[in-house]
Amino acid sequence: MDNHLFKNIEKKTGVNMKDIFDLANSLQSANFKDENTVRNVIKRVSQIANKPVPKDMEDKIVKSIVADGKQLDFNTIAKMINKK
After folding, report:
1. Kind and range of the H or E element at 70?
2. 7: helix, strand or coil
3. Which one, of 7, 8, 16, 84, lies nearest residue 49 by Cα?
4. What spatial distance separates the first Cα and last Cα of the chain, rounded to whole Å?
5. What global pTM score does this model have?
6. Which domain of life is it from (predicted)?
7. For every one of its 84 residues, what pLDDT tens digit does the chain have, with 9 covering 90 and above?
8. What are the sequence ranges of the domains in the chain?
C-alpha cells in the first residue's frame, strides 16, 4: 500500500497506522462472545483514538456486542464510542 497515503492519514488524524493494522489483525480472530475480549478491544480502540470511554458506556457497548456475538471492525466500535 501507499506509504505516502498512510503518512498523510497519520498527520491528519494523529493515529498511527501500524496500531490500526495491528488492531484490525487482532479483530479477525477475536471471540466477541467473550466479555473480557470485547472489553480489551474497546480499551484498545479508545487508546488508539485517544478518546476515553466512560465505564457506563463501555458496559453498554460490551452488552450489545456480547449479545450479538458477530464479528466487528474498527469503524463499528469507533462509531459506538463516538455516540456518547
Report:
1. none
2. helix
3. 16
4. 33
5. 0.69
6. Bacteria
7. 567 877 887 787 788 888 888 888 888 888 888 999 999 988 988 888 888 999 999 998 898 888 876 666 667 766 766 654
8. 3-82
Single-letter amino acid, residue 64: S
CA distance 44 to 46: 5
Place of cell 466477541: 32
Q: What pLDDT was estimated at residue 74? A: 63
Q: What is the DSSP letter of 63?
A: H
And the C-alpha cell for 56? 457506563
Predicted pLDDT of residue 8:
80
> Can you tell me whether residue 76 is helix, strand or coil?
helix
How far apart are the C-alpha atoms of 3 and 37, rounded to whole Å?
Answer: 31
Distance, CA of 65 to CA of 34 (rounded, Å): 9
What is the 3-state secondary structure of 13-59?
HCCCHHHHHHHHHHHHCCCCCCHHHHHHHHHHHHHHHCCCCCHHHHH
